[in-house]
Specification:
By secondary structure, the protein is an alpha+beta fold. The chain has three helices and eleven strands.
Length: 231
């Protein structure tokens, strides 16, 4: 019981440190091992936390984060929105939309949704400072990537986490468990990172970047845990 309450306290502390909902995002250039040399034609045209018109670009729930950029497909607008758990089902939902505008025509390039339900308090959090838009393989089509946490636990256990990447219309994912240090046993560690087979059909640079991003996030939360317990 003492371990449980100690772990729970650390979990809540780390949630305050890591699961921030400030909406301000940036990437750590020191955490990226891939060198993106050559033209960076997208970089100057990427904007985060932009206002969107819900009439022109409808979405469900409340906006969590947004981004816009220009690439070969046209003018892109990314909307991440969500609904907090409520009602008997205790169901939390997350929605992501990529609208694209070209030659005065607006259409949906892709959209996705996910949800979590649990007997305890459920919610879905965007992992802070993980939303990025960049052209990883310099093909003129941007990749958008972010991580989110599906909170459904009744105690201080590892949590289900997903990394979502889109390259144009292609959806790619890494999923598994984070905060594995809260229950360091082989069964948990084996499920801590699973890379979608869809990565096999795209440029290997995309899987390398996504895998590094996942590992960097896990490394940072582990360091925060070690600092919290004084190791």
């Amino acid at each position: 019981m003492k371990w449980y309450f100690t772990s729970l306290g650390i979990f809540l502390f780390l949630s305050c440190q890591i699961d921030d909902h400030s909406g301000k995002t940036h990437s750590d250039p020191n955490s990226q091992k891939i060198s993106l040399s050559g033209s960076h034609s997208l970089i100057d045209e990427i904007a985060y936390d932009i206002p969107v018109d819900p009439i022109r670009m409808p979405y469900r729930g409340e906006i969590r984060q947004t981004a816009s950029w220009q690439d070969k497909n046209g003018k892109n607008t990314l909307i991440i929105s969500g609904i907090h758990a409520n009602g008997i089902l205790n169901k939390a939902e997350i929605f992501t939309y990529n609208y694209i505008e070209k030659d005065s025509l607006l259409k949906t390039l892709w959209k996705s949704e996910d949800h979590v339900m649990g007997s305890c308090e459920s919610d879905i959090f965007i992992a802070p400072e993980t939303l990025e838009v960049l052209d990883i393989n310099q093909d003129g089509i941007a990749e958008s990537v972010f991580m989110y946490i599906l909170s459904e636990n009744c105690d201080a256990s590892p949590v289900r986490t997903k990394l979502m990447m889109h390259s144009g219309e292609k959806e790619l994912m890494i999923e598994g468990l984070t905060k594995v240090f809260l229950l360091p046993i082989p069964e948990v560690e084996e499920n801590s990172k699973r890379i979608d087979k869809a990565f096999q059909a795209v440029d290997p640079l995309l899987s390398t970047y996504a895998s590094q991003k996942w590992d960097n996030y896990v490394r940072e939360e582990t360091l925060a845990f070690q600092e919290a317990v004084g190791n």
